């Protein structure tokens, strides 16, 4: 007897979690639903972007220092039998051009439909990391400011 675990289909999982899960953020003013789940690049509650329902996924986040961290979730028999091998993590310390090329190469191997979303998220995170920690104080131009 083999102890092979079969997972539910992504469509069934989506039908179960689309209206009620712990990551869901509902905004009643506009009727839009957002989510905070991992592997959801756009934070939109939809089947295409869901990290819960899909077998494979991509996640980009702020890393240590000025780097961008990435996680890739994959599926298959190896992922079912050895969950530690299901996730690939790393950091990108490269410039915009080299980092975006690396993101594009990695994401197109897993989920080609999320390549544009991953590049947009990468550029957004690089801009956040490149900002100075605090803005310099403005000089006071009034004559009485020196006293």
Shape: globular
How many runs of DSSP E, i.e. beta strands?
A: 5
Strand content: 15-25%
What letter string, H or E per element, gives the SSE order?
HEEEEHEHH
List low-pLDDT spans: none
For the termini, the CA-CA separation is 88 Å
How much helix, percentage-wise, in residues?
A: 25-40%
Task: Determine the oligomeric state from the structure.
Answer: single chain
Question: Major β-sheet, in short?
Answer: 3 strands, antiparallel
Q: Which class do the helix and strand fractions yield?
A: alpha+beta
H/I helix tally: 4
Arithmetic mean of pLDDT:
83
The Cα radius of gyration reads 21 Å
Spatial order of the strands forming the largest sheet: 3-4-5
Throw out a few tags for this protein.
147 residues, two-stranded antiparallel sheet, alpha+beta, 18% strand, 30% helix, 5 strands
Walkthrough of the structure:
The chain is α+β, with helices and mostly antiparallel strands and 147 residues long. The chain has helices at 10-17, 77-81, 96-110, 115-130, and strands spanning 24-27, 32-35, 57-62, 68-73, 87-92. The strands form 2 sheets. It has a 3-stranded antiparallel β-sheet. The protein has a two-stranded antiparallel ribbon with strand order 1-2.
């Amino acid at each position: 007897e083999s102890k092979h675990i079969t997972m539910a289909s992504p469509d069934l999982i989506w039908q179960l979690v689309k209206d009620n899960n712990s990551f869901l953020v509902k905004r009643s003013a506009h009727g839009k639903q957002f989510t905070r789940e991992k592997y959801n690049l756009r934070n939109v509650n939809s089947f295409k972007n869901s990290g819960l329902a899909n077998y494979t996924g991509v996640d980009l986040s702020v890393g240590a220092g000025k780097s961008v961290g990435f996680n890739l979730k994959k599926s298959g028999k190896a992922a079912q039998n050895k969950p530690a091998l299901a996730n690939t993590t790393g950091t990108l310390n490269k410039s915009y051009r080299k980092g975006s090329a690396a993101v594009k190469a990695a994401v197109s191997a897993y989920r080609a439909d999320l390549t544009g979303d991953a590049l947009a998220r990468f550029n957004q995170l690089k801009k956040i990391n490149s900002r100075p920690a605090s803005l310099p104080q403005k000089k006071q131009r009034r004559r009485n400011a020196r006293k």
